[in-house]
Amino acid sequence: YSLSLEVLATAKKINPDIYTKSGLMIGLGESILEIEKAMDDLRSVSCDILTVGQYLRRTLEQLPVVKYYNLEEFRMLEEKGAVISYDEFNLIKDGAYLINCARGGVVDEN
After folding, report:
1. Radius of gyration (Cα) for the chain, nearest Å?
2. Helices 32-44 and 2-14 sit at what angle, rounded to 10 degrees?
3. How many CA atoms lie within 13 A of 36 on its CB side?
4. Angle at 77 between CA 5 and CA 11, to 5 degrees
5. pLDDT, tens digit, for every residue of 52-79?
6. 46: closest CA among 85, 92, 8?
7. Of these four, 8, 43, 59, 64, which has the most CB atoms within 10 Å of its CB?
């Protein structure tokens, strides 16, 4: 966790104009407070883009889902991102159906 934050901070120090991005996969037993702390930690290293998505167990070989977050909880996290401010997180996407592809382009259907 700390190494990931360090990589993001270093990228910004090398070139403050590049966008940095991180993603949170939730549903493995973390609390809302832990998610909010992670969001605060990401802002502290000037992370620009944050995605938040529900962990889904694809097969029985993977870890079970501890909690399915409902849409109200996702909205609350989105509001937390708004409280941090749009200028703080340039783009925050959340949702139970968020699909994050490492090599895909940016798609915003809104």
Report:
1. 14
2. 30
3. 13
4. 20
5. 888 988 889 999 999 999 888 888 888 8
6. 8
7. 8
Structure-derived torsion over alpha carbons of residues 52, 56, 8, 109, reported in degrees to the nearest 10? -40
Q: Mean pLDDT across the stretch 15-36?
A: 92
Side chain identity, residue 46: S
- Asked if 25 and 56 touch (Cβ cutoff 8 Å), the reply is no
DSSP for the chain, please give it: -HHHHHHHHHHHHH-TTS--EEEEEE-SS--HHHHHHHHHHHHHTT--EEEEEE----STTSPPPS-PPPHHHHHHHHHHHHHH-TTTSSEEEEETT----TT-------
